[in-house]
């Protein structure tokens, strides 16, 4: 979008204005889709889940496979429950 805006600002041509309008429209449609479908929130939940798992592994370097599996299962279930509420 920045490139389309820069081109239009430097040339003021109708063609570049059309490109800017198209790029802006696509970007707005994408943002609207993400809001309506909850994709932004799902991505935030996903990131939080992954970071939580990574933190657990860092804080528990000697964890057994059973402990790791238990923590993974817990985190994934929380993620799934949060997504279900959307």
User: What are the low-pLDDT stretches, counting only 5+ consecutive residues below 50?
Assistant: none
What oligomerization state is this entry in? single chain
Task: Indicate how many domains the architecture comprises.
Answer: 2
Please tally the β strands and state the result: 0
Compute the average pLDDT.
89
- Compute the number of helices: 4
End-to-end CA span: 30 Å
Please identify the structural class as seen in this structure: mainly alpha
Largest sheet: none
Note the run of SSEs as H and E: HHHH
Share of residues in helices = over 70%
Envelope shape: elongated
What Rg do the Cα atoms give? 22 Å
DSSP strand content:
under 5%
Would you kindly provide a written description of the structure presented here, covering whatever features stand out?
It is a single chain. The protein has helices at residues 2-11, 14-37, 39-59, 65-84. The protein is mainly alpha-helical. It folds into two domains: 1-37; 38-86. The longest helix has 24 residues, at 14-37. It is elongated and about 65 Å long. The mean pLDDT is 89.
